[in-house]
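Fig. S4 source data, part A: sequence.
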Amino acid sequence: PLQQLQPKVVSKRLRTSQRKPREPQIPRSLIKEAFRHFAKMPVTADAFKIVEKCSERYFMQLSDDLEAYTHHAGRKTVEPADLEVLMRRQGLVTDQMPLNVLIERHFPLQYRKLLIPVAVSGNKVISSK
């Protein structure tokens, strides 16, 4: 006689994972690479841990400030003008040093083309939008 096949009983997890949800973080390798580029010398592991904590706090404060500027303007989306206001308040952008000059000075050409509208032949302006 044939035996009937019994379906396997799969137990359902009643609880979710025990792990706490993690906030997104900047990859350690990116922070390390950027710091080594600007420091131009070897960095000890202890010093790097401090740099990593400072970077994390800096970017958290940066995002909180951008969020505050956006809410103050009555919007839900951060716009380039918010970032420019933030950089102006930090003293990075001034009347003598506009944002476009900083972009041209510190970004490679491929990114400059994305960030700054460029006039091409026929006087057509290509924007990033």
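Fig. S4 source data, part B ends here. The longest helix spans residues 45-72.
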